[in-house]
Amino acid sequence: MTDHAHDRDRLRTLEDAGFPLHSLSPEQREVLQDLTAEELTLLLGLKERLDAAEPEVQAHSEIAGGALF
Description:
Residues 1-20 are annotated as: Disordered. It is a single chain. The termini are far apart. By secondary structure, this protein is mainly α. The chain is globular and about 40 Å long. It contains 3 helices and no strands. The protein has one domain. The protein has helices at residues 3-16, 26-33, 37-64.
């Protein structure tokens, strides 16, 4: 597989995980394309943890009317 194909795979992996790549600048997408395998794994893990915490934050926001968060 060529390096260019790896770059597309990285972006596809991020997009499939829910990263809003369409809202990023070309320069920002280039940074993501250049991630190492370890960086990609770390970023995906962080997003997974943030997504898991999201419902709790949303529930607090709904209960408190967003006053505290």
